[in-house]
Amino acid sequence: MLPREEILGLLSSLGVDLPPKTKLPDVELDKRLSKALDGAQYLSRVAPTLPFDPAIYSSWIRGKSNKTLVEAMRRHNVGEATMVDANQRKGMDSPFPALYSNAFMDLRETLPAIGHACDKGMVPIVLQDKGEMSGICMRVLEVRKFDDQTPILIVVFQHDVKDNLSPGSFAWISSYVSSGSGSPLVTITATVQEQHLLLRILNNNKKRLSSSYKPKRAPTESSFSLSFLIPVGPLGAQDMAKLNANNGCSICGEPAKQKCSRCGAVRYCDAVCQKEDWKSHRPLCSGWQGAKWQGITFILADLQVAGHYALRISRFDNVQHNDMGLRMERAKDNQGPPENTHGTTPFIVKIQVNSSQALGPAHTILPSNARDDGSNILIYDQRRTIDVIVLRAPEASEEEAAPFDAVTALVREKGDRGIKAFCWAIRTGEWTLDICLDRLPDWQKW
Where does the record place the MYND-type domain (predicted)? Predict the structure, then answer.
């Protein structure tokens, strides 16, 4: 098991940011990392009942229906595709983190690189960091496919650390360096942290192969482990919501039993965590004292409205796995409330008023004869773990419409072009939010 701090760092690279002082035991954090990597492989969507025998699946042969492996090993969501397109049109650099700064993003670049090596032939591969502190010897034995979009790279691998090269790895490397077989070693640079993620995937996946499956391997690979790799991409909305869930103390995640007596907005499990949080909470606490909060009720963006299905394309929708089609199917069913990933801790939301001037989806999400009538507003957080619509009933009394009108007035008066604004919010129930009307956060870049 990796050190606790390293597991938290790897989870963060996948977009799973737990409370800084979480009291989750090491074993639970380790399980959460494995679950996150399973979600990133979309195993539940593409894999059969596990374990499985790859021999029953067709070989991946590039043809009219199959892409190159370098292409097929890539996964991205709508949000990423939109960011890349917007940056290209503006002549800007890639919006993604620089290479070797985010272990998970590095892994997502390494898998297509392995696919690229396979496109040239089943060549031996060595992944190692620049300081050669850690390395993985690997060879792809064959490539099968779950479907035309999802290749299965059957691999043998062995991991070594600096100054401790195993006899098996030494013999394996020597066989390619000295044989003149025409299969030169392909070297891929991978940070130690990235290798930890790749090894976790390989070690978990090797248990998912049927014991009856025994592909042919080279004599020097007898000590290597057998496993498989499939495409990896960003976590979907449901996985993100579950893995980021914090329904308790804002510091450790334990059940919250008290709240800050000054602002009443942040909750803690005990006085120890509250004292620990005071330095970072103090600036916000002063601003929230005496703040005015407005309760508001919402509906899911995918619920049936006025005889139509409002299909909201989420930034988390995966382009390669028909997420948008699946969302359309789900839109036909009554859904429960979105999961509460924030607990009772305040978080920032973006509020966008129905308007034809809006660049985003707020003016198209629901059918409306008058685009600028402000009859609905869209509210969502940065990760879209909550992504909801608030409606103003056309025949509502002034008293009934007061919550909606108060929030709309805030956006009209203090927002950008009177269309959108960032606000503090607190989840108060399954279908309710409290919006802070007089303490706005700094403008966000999302």
Answer: 249-285
Residues 6+ apart with CB under 8 A from 145: 57, 58, 59, 60, 66, 151, 152
Residues contacting residue 64 through CB under 8 Å, at least 6 positions apart: none
Domain that holds residue 69: 42-233
Q: Which residues pair with 157 in a beta bridge?
A: 138, 225
CA 141 centroid distance within chain: 30
Of 80, 79, 62, 82, give the one whose Cα is nearest residue 71: 62
Over residues 365-414, the pLDDT tens digits come to 444 443 445 678 889 988 777 888 888 877 788 888 899 999 999 999 99
In the block, residue with structure tokens 């679950």: 35
Q: Estimate the crossing angle of helix 4-13 against helix 192-205, to 10 degrees.
A: 90
What pLDDT digit, counting tens, does each position of 14-35 carry? Answer: 999 887 778 888 998 999 999 9
Domain boundary among 202, 233, 264: 233
Is there a contact between 251 and 276 (Cβ–Cβ < 8 Å)? yes
Domain count, the chain: 2
In this predicted structure, what is the pLDDT of residue 284?
A: 80
Q: Which amino acid type is present at position 185?
A: L
Are residues 143 and 216 both part of a single domain?
Answer: yes
For residue 99, pLDDT over 70 is answered with yes
Mean pLDDT, all residues of the chain: 84
> Do residues 302 and 192 share a domain?
no
CB 155 within 8 A of CB 142: no
223: which residues sit within 8 A by CB, 6+ positions away?
158, 166, 167, 168
Closest CA to 185 of 195, 197, 176, 194: 176
Helix and strand numbers (H, E) in the chain are 12, 16
213: in domain: yes
> What gap in Å lies between CA 262 and CA 223, rounded to an integer?
62
Give the up-direction half-sphere exposure of residue 305: CA atoms within 13 A in the CB hemisphere.
19
181 in the same domain as 54: yes
Best-predicted range by mean pLDDT (185-194, 230-239, 411-420):
185-194
Secondary structure of the chain: what % helix, strand, coil (to 5)?
35, 20, 45
